[in-house]
Design goal:
Blueprint lengths: L30 H8 L2 H6 L5 H14 L4 H25 L3 H7 L3 H34 L3 H7 L3 H11 L1 H26 L3 H7 L9 H14 L2 H10 L10 H37 L9 H7 L3 H4 L5 H34 L5 H22 L6 H28 L2 H4 L7 H25 L1
Helix pairs in contact: 3-11, 3-13, 4-11, 4-12, 4-13, 4-18, 5-6, 5-16, 6-7, 6-16, 6-17, 6-18, 7-17, 8-9, 9-13, 9-16, 11-20, 12-16, 12-18, 14-16, 16-17, 18-20
Function: H(+)-stimulated, divalent metal cation uptake system.
Organism: Pseudolactococcus plantarum
Subcellular location: Cell membrane; Membrane
């Protein structure tokens, strides 16, 4: 057994200590048994790539520009796979999540500033997810938006119950909800009769993507895809598997199968985002340019003048069910991310239930204020959700740049696990390009 010398123990213990190293993995090296054992964390990460923010941009992109922006969805997904690979590798190899690693390599004052910005980014992420869940409850059951926002607080109680039953239960419910979303949109796309030739052509980048109006929507899709909280989340939950952290070969096996898990689940997220854009293109292109809110999309799916012959209340109801599933999934992972960041940056140790209520409550308050302020105004909460994505653009470099730097460092990762020159180059290009595109998005919006 070759001893792994680069494992770093965090002074205050691992993040999510109650679930760290709790999931057994097989001792033998059967490929499929290992895939099954390591499957799960990737699903929680993939949720962030199919949250309500992605819905608006993907369906809106299809409604306005047909299949043109499918290439943007593809490229964004490939970048996501690269960054999530780095995040999981950082956690598995060093024993540190991204928040802990960042805090350990920065001064106290800078670390505090980075924590504040990252906490605000998680709140911005949660805003879109809470809004999506509240709107879904309103569409399905007529529950007022204010009460729908309040009801999302109880997601924390569900999460606490699942944590008592084991982390695998959380993974199972998230995977189930992902399947619900994929089945719903798979069905809706199938009956919408998309143009297969145009769809395949859309995966090849076209020069029209760089036209001003199309570029704005493309940047929106990219900005809604790569989110800061996913990098913190993955670097922590990748450590839930019980591997020998002092055995270099066992660490390498964990990295390998964690990467398989992540790429498989992100491929599912790519399929769902593709379905969203194809649905927008097949049903609404040329007749649904004004579709900018969840309510308008819900109404359009049962409007024969917009969705055509396939329009029906069933389609709109399924849309709302999938939206609720997306909101529920994302709120679970958002709460976990809040805990990881709080523990990693400031070592705040409070009871588990209190910590989860704090992280959840901080996110719900601004949404609740917005729901009261925009009461009765069409699209008010949707507008708040879109603005929250702008702040995510600002916060993105704070997580991406340290991640690429840490995983490219031989001192931190060791010679065997540091990024290869090609991976490091792709990582820096992705970080610089995404940061630049998001800055441009902010400038264009204002």
């Amino acid at each position: 057994m070759k001893k792994h010398k680069k494992f770093v123990a965090y002074a205050n213990g691992p993040s999510l200590a109650e679930i760290n190293g709790t999931v057994e993995i097989p001792k033998n090296h059967s490929f499929w048994r290992n895939i099954l054992a390591f499957s799960g964390p990737g699903a929680l990460v993939a949720v962030g790539y199919m949250d309500p923010g992605n819905w608006i941009t993907s369906i809106g992109g299809g409604a306005q520009y047909g299949y043109l922006l499918l290439s943007v969805v593809l490229i964004s997904s490939l970048i996501a796979m690269l960054l999530q690979y780095m995040a999981s590798k950082l956690g598995i190899v060093t024993g540190l999540d991204l928040a802990q690693a960042t805090r350990q390599h920065t001064g106290k004052k800078l670390g505090f500033v980075l924590w504040i910005v990252t906490e605000l980014a998680i709140m911005a992420t949660d805003i879109a997810e809470v809004i999506g869940g509240a709107i879904a409850l309103n569409l399905l059951f007529g529950i007022p938006l204010v009460w729908g926002v309040i009801l999302t607080v109880f997601d924390v109680l569900l999460l606490l119950l699942l944590m008592k039953l084991g982390f695998r239960k959380i993974e199972a419910i998230v995977i189930t909800l992902i399947i619900v979303i994929m089945v719903v949109f798979g069905y809706e796309v199938a009956i919408s009769n998309p143009n297969i030739a145009d769809m395949l052509k859309g995966f090849v980048p076209q020069k029209e993507v760089f036209s001003r109006s199309q570029l704005m929507m493309a940047l929106g899709i990219v900005g809604a895809t790569v989110m800061p909280h996913n990098l913190y989340l993955h670097s922590s939950i990748a450590q839930t598997r019980r591997y020998d952290r002092q055995d270099e070969d066992d660490v390498a096996r964990a990295v390998r199968f964690s990467t398989w898990d992540s790429n498989i689940q992100l491929t599912v997220a790519f399929i769902i985002n593709t379905l969203l854009l194809v649905l927008g293109a097949a049903m609404f292109f040329g007749r649904g340019d004004g579709l900018g809110t969840f309510n308008s999309l819900y109404d359009a799916l049962q409007d024969n003048k917009i969705a055509g012959a396939v329009a029906s209340p069933l389609l709109s109801t399924l849309f709302a069910v999938a939206l609720l599933a997306s909101g529920q999934n994302s709120t679970i992972t958002g709460t976990l991310s809040g805990q990881i960041v709080m523990e990693g940056f400031i070592n705040l140790k409070v009871p588990t239930w209190a910590r989860r209520l704090i992280t959840r409550g901080l996110s719900v308050i601004p949404v609740l204020v917005a729901a009261i302020y925009y009461h009765g105004k069409e699209g008010g909460l949707d507008d708040v959700m879109i603005k929250s994505q702008v702040f995510l653009s600002i916060a993105l470099p704070i997580s991406m740049i340290p991640l690429v730097y840490f995983t490219s460092s031989e001192k931190i990762m060791g010679k065997r696990f540091k990024n290869s020159k090609l991976i490091a180059l792709l990582g820096w290009i992705s970080a610089i390009v995404l940061t630049g595109l998001n800055i441009k998005l902010i400038i264009d919006m204002f």
